[in-house]
Amino acid sequence: MELKQLFKNIDFELKQGNLNQKITEVKYDSREIEKDNLFIAINGFEVDGHQFIEQAIKNGAAAVVIEKDLLEYQTGISYIKVDNCRKVMAELAKNFFGNPLKDIKLIGITGTNGKTTTSYLLYNILKEAKGKAALFGTIKNIIGEQELDSSRTTPESIDLYRYFSQMREAEVKYGVMEVSSHALDLYRVYGMKFAAAIFTNISPEHLDYHKNLENYREVKARLFAQLSQAEFAVINLDDSNSDYIKEKSGGKNYFYSLNAKTADLYTTDYELHQKGMEYRTGGKLDTFFELNLGGIFNIYNSLASILTAKLLGIKKDTIKNALAKISSVPGRFEIINVGQDFQIVVDYAHTPDGMKNVLETASAMEKNRLIVLFGCGGDRDRSKRPVMASLAEKYADYTIVSNDNPRSEDPENIFAEIKKGFSKKFNAYEIIPDRKKAIEKAIQIAEKNDLVMLLGRGHEQYQILKNRKIKLDDRQIAHQAAVEMKGI
Ligand SMILES: CC(=O)N[C@H]1[C@@H](OP(=O)(O)OP(=O)(O)OC[C@H]2O[C@@H](n3ccc(=O)[nH]c3=O)[C@H](O)[C@@H]2O)O[C@H](CO)[C@@H](O)[C@@H]1O[C@H](C)C(=O)N[C@@H](C)C(=O)N[C@H](CCC(=O)O)C(=O)O
Ligand SMILES: Nc1ncnc2c1ncn2[C@@H]1O[C@H](COP(=O)(O)OP(=O)(O)OP(=O)(O)O)[C@@H](O)[C@H]1O
Ligand SMILES: N[C@H](CCC[C@H](N)C(=O)O)C(=O)O
Ligand SMILES: [Mg+2]
C-alpha cells in the first residue's frame, strides 16, 4: 500500500520524502523491521522509539512516523510527523488492513475484575450460536480454529487489526475482546468500532499507573464513549459507577443486576452449591440457568454474557446449552481434584476486590479450615499489598505468603509491605518465598475437608523474577503435590 493511501483521513506533516512510497508492513519495534516497512517511533515509558530510527532504517524501513522533529533526515526515506504516534498507529492500522471491522461484530469488555471470565463465557455462547468466533484476552487469543499465545490482556492496535484481518480471512464474524485500562489510555483501541461494550465493575487497581481512582474510571469509560447510537452497552447496575458509565456511553444502555427488577436482566433467585450454581432470571429473559462455576461474582459474569448474547439476537436455548457445557474458566476458581480428601482451588484473584469476593465465596462453602496462599506482583500497585494481607487474616485459618511475580522488585520488600496489613497479634501465617515450596507446604498441612486456596496467578505458566522467567504453574504443582504427598 502507498503512503498516501495509508494516511487517508489522518492529519500529518510530510517532513521529507514522498507519499508514493510503497509500504509492506507497519511496525513499532525497530528490531522487527524488514524491507520497505513503516516504522512508528513511540516515546515509551522505558525508552524513546525515536532513538531507534537509524536502526529501523538499517533494517529496511522506507518511511518513519515521528512526533518530534529530528536533527537530520536521511535522503531516500520518508519522514512523517504527527501529534501522537500511538493514536496515529491505531488509525494507520485500520487503513493498512482495510478496515476489517466493517463486517465483524466485536464486543469489548472492560472493568477491574471479571473481564477474562465474561469474555470466555460470551465467546463460548457465540461459538455455539455461530459455529466459530474469536477471543482476545489475558489467557489466549483464538481466531476460529486457530489458538495463539497471549502475552498481554490487550495487544497494540496494529497487532489487533492484524488479528481482525485474520478473522475476515477465516470468515469469523464475531469476536470478544478484553479491553484493559492500559489499552484505553495508550490508544490501543482508539477509534475502534465495537458492536457492544460490557462494563463489569471498578475497584482500586493499577493506581501506580493511573494515580487515582478518578483517572482510572475516566479511562475505563472511554470504551463506552466510543459507541454510537446503533451500538449498545451492557452495564452492571450494582456497581457504584454504573451511572457514570451510562452518562459517558454513546450507545444504547442495558443493565444487569443480581436482583434489581429495574434492570434488563436480573436473577429472581439463585443457589450456589458444591458443583456450581443455578438461577432463574427475570427481565428480558424469564428462564433458568445452570452453570458449573462457583462464586457470586460468576453470577455477574454470566448475566453480562447472557444479556449481551440476547441483545445480539441469540436464542435462549443456545445460550443455556453453551453455558451448561463450560466446566471451568482456566485459573478462575479452578478446582484441582485428584481424589484427595480436601479441596484445592486455584484462582487469579490479585486485587483486593477479587480476593474479597473469592474468600467470601470460600467462607460460604462447606469445609473445615481455610488455608490461603497469596503474594503480590512486583512493579505494580503497591497499595494492594497490606489490604490483601488484612483480607487473608480476616478469612483464613492459616495463611502462607509467597512470591507472585516479583519482577524487578526485591521479594523481601514486597513481603514487608504485605506484613504491614497483618494486625500485631496475628501469627497464623508464614512466609515461604519459593512458590513451589509454598504450594507444597499448603497441601502438606491440609487435613480432611480443609479448603486450600492458591491465589493470584491462576492460569499463569511463568514466574517473572528479577532477570529470569521460570516455568511455574500453580495448578500443575498443586496437582503433583496432591498426588505425591497424599499418596493418591
Ligand atoms: C505501561 C505499558 O503498557 N507499557 C507498554 C508500552 O511500553 P513502553 O511505551 O514503555 O515501551 P518502551 O519499552 O519504552 O519502548 C518504546 C518503543 O520503542 C520501541 N523499541 C524499543 C527497543 C528497541 O530496540 N527498538 C524499539 O523500536 C518499542 O517497541 C516501543 O514501541 O508499549 C510496549 C510496546 O507495545 C509494551 O510492551 C509495554 O507493555 C509492558 C510490557 C507492560 O507490562 N504492560 C502492562 C502494564 C499492560 O499493558 N497491562 C495491561 C493490563 C493488565 C490487566 O489488568 O489485565 C494489558 O493490557 O496487558
Ligand atoms: N465479576 C467479578 N467481580 C469481582 N471479582 C471477580 C469477578 N469475576 C472474577 N473475579 C475475581 O477476579 C479474578 C480475576 O478474574 P478475571 O480474570 O475474570 O478478571 P480480569 O478482569 O480479566 O483480570 P485481569 O485484568 O487481571 O486480566 C478471578 O480469579 C476472581 O477471583
Ligand atoms: N494484568 C495484571 C495481572 C496481575 C497478575 C499477578 N499475578 C501479578 O503478576 O501481579 C497485571 O499485569 O497487573
Ligand atoms: Mg483478564
Automatic annotation (TrEMBL):
Molecular function, one GO term: ATP binding
Subcellular location field: Cytoplasm
Amino acids binding meso-2,6-diaminopimelate: 380, 404-407, 456, 460
GO BP: cell division; cell wall organization; peptidoglycan biosynthetic process; regulation of cell shape
Record carries keyword Endoplasmic reticulum: no
Substrates-to-products reaction catalysed: UDP-N-acetyl-alpha-D-muramoyl-L-alanyl-D-glutamate + meso-2,6-diaminopimelate + ATP = UDP-N-acetyl-alpha-D-muramoyl-L-alanyl-gamma-D-glutamyl-meso-2,6-diaminopimelate + ADP + phosphate + H(+)
Residues involved in UDP-N-acetyl-alpha-D-muramoyl-L-alanyl-D-glutamate binding: 30, 153-154, 180, 188
Domain Mur ligase N-terminal catalytic: 22-96
Name of the protein described by the UniProt record: UDP-N-acetylmuramoyl-L-alanyl-D-glutamate--2,6-diaminopimelate ligase
